[in-house]
From TrEMBL:
GO terms for biological process: DNA-templated transcription initiation. Gene3D superfamilies: 1.20.120.1810, 1.20.140.160, STAS domain. PANTHER family: RNA POLYMERASE SIGMA-E FACTOR, SIGMA FACTOR F FLAGELLAR. Keywords: DNA-binding, Sigma factor, Transcription, Transcription regulation. Residues 293-391 form the STAS domain. InterPro entries: MlaB-like_STAS (IPR058548), RNA_pol_sigma-70_dom (IPR014284), RNA_pol_sigma-B/F/G (IPR014322), RNA_pol_sigma70 (IPR000943), RNA_pol_sigma70_r2 (IPR007627), RNA_pol_sigma70_r3 (IPR007624), RNA_pol_sigma70_r4 (IPR007630), RNA_pol_sigma_r2 (IPR013325). NCBIfam families: SigBFG, sigma70-ECF. This is RNA polymerase sigma-B factor. The keyword DNA repair does not apply. PROSITE patterns: STAS. One of its GO terms (molecular function) is DNA binding.
Length: 391
């Protein structure tokens, strides 16, 4: 404030008081940011590092209210306002350090830098569960597309509609929708509500009763390998394939009552074997005797015929393998025929025995062929690659 003396035309002397108000930089407002940045750029030319730092700090303090206003735009989104303000100030410092007056407005550059820093904070630091960056970006796009399509369709869009709008496969849209829950997962320690003191984690999961049966399952799987092939197959068809006894009987060409007796006998043996320290050997006899594997070798002129009957499994396969190998290597017969007319069933062990006989025949140069296999047996042998040996 200072005074000025003037004389008017009447000769009366008067004093006019003029008041000069100095406005602080903080009160100048947003419109002065560009001018302040330009003055800062001109001011630091030729200054020492200490004075340059002081000028930088002055500009940062001057622009702090601007950064605070940008931070407040993002409050209410799950992050404390204090954290957002700190992130905005970091963006402001970066904007001051990187600003070049020749590239345009400082206000626009600072706004872009600060908002970018805030968005990066939300993207990288606020997820409760780690989600790949590609999915995080897609989640934002899905959210924007959902809002747009909801406005256009007056209903929530389907996954197919979102995929078409974003030109993205539906699998990725589904992955983004599922991953969105990772932003703010529910706490297992959150109270359920009401007067109870239970927490959300108390309601998740339940007792796994199957754990108690693990030992029994392991024991049974080992005992099943001790059963003959037919009994194993019937058990699998009944309890894993959910086939009826009549369907199993039709598959094996026996009566439904016979299937019932075989199931009862196998289950009884399994029950007793599980309770015993050493499982008893499976006893064949009576009605089951007809299914025991039988091998006989006879000569018919210059040919050797190996007749096979019953059921061929891994426990009896070695007997057949020895018979066939001996037949093709001893005496150089003109041909060896394996007659399978009485063979009721064959498993992987029996197939391996026939394959070993075939390889021995190829090495010795003796022709080997299979004859009169029943449809079920023929199907198994064909699948194993033995079809060329059929007569």
């Amino acid at each position: 404030m200072f005074g000025q003396t003037t004389t008017n035309t009447t000769g009366v002397t008067s004093t006019t008081t003029t008041t000069t108000t100095t406005t602080s930089p903080t009160e100048r407002g947003l419109e002065d940011l560009d001018a302040a940045a330009t003055a800062y750029a001109a001011r630091i030319v030729g200054l020492s590092p200490e004075r340059r730092q002081e000028a930088r700090d002055d500009l940062v303090r001057f622009a702090l209210p601007f950064a605070g206003r940008l931070a407040r735009r993002y409050r209410g989104r799950g992050e404390p306002l204090e954290d957002l303000e700190q992130v905005a100030r970091l963006g402001l410092v970066n904007a001051v350090d990187r600003y070049d007056p020749e590239r345009g407005s400082f206000t626009a550059y600072a706004a872009i830098t600060i908002v970018g820093e805030i968005k990066r904070h939300f993207r990288d630091r606020t997820w409760g569960v780690h989600v790949p960056r590609r999915l995080r970006d897609l989640i934002l796009e899905v959210g924007q597309a959902t809002a747009a399509l909801t406005s256009e369709l007056s209903r929530a869009p389907t996954v197919a509609e979102l995929a078409e709008r974003l030109e993205t496969p539906q699998e990725e849209i589904l992955a983004a929708l599922e991953s969105a829950a990772g932003y703010s997962p529910a706490s297992l320690n959150a109270p359920v509500g009401g007067e109870s003191s239970a927490e959300f984690g108390d309601l998740v999961g339940e007792s796994d009763n199957d754990l108690e049966s693990v030992d029994d399952r392991v024991t049974v799987s080992g005992l099943l390998c001790r059963l003959p092939w037919r009994e194993r197959r019937i058990l699998a068809m009944r309890f894993y394939g959910n086939q009826t006894q009549a369907e199993i009987a039709a598959r094996f060409g026996i009566s439904q009552m016979h299937v019932s007796r075989l199931l009862s006998r196998a289950l009884t043996w399994l029950r007793q074997a599980m309770l015993a320290d050493a499982p008893a050997t499976w006893q064949t006899g009576g009605e089951a005797e007809q299914h025991r594997m039988r091998v006989s070798v006879r000569r018919a002129g210059d040919r050797v015929v190996v007749e096979v009957g019953g059921e061929l499994d891994r426990e009896t396969a070695d007997q057949l393998r020895c018979a066939v190998v001996d037949a093709v290597t001893a005496g150089q017969p003109a041909e060896v025929v394996v007659d399978l007319v009485d063979l009721a069933a064959v498993d992987a062990g029996g197939v391996a025995a026939l394959l070993a006989g075939r390889d021995a025949a190829l090495r010795s140069g003796t022709p080997l062929r299979l004859a009169r296999a029943q449809p079920g047996v023929r199907q198994s042998l064909t699948a194993a690659g033995l079809a060329p040996l059929y007569a």
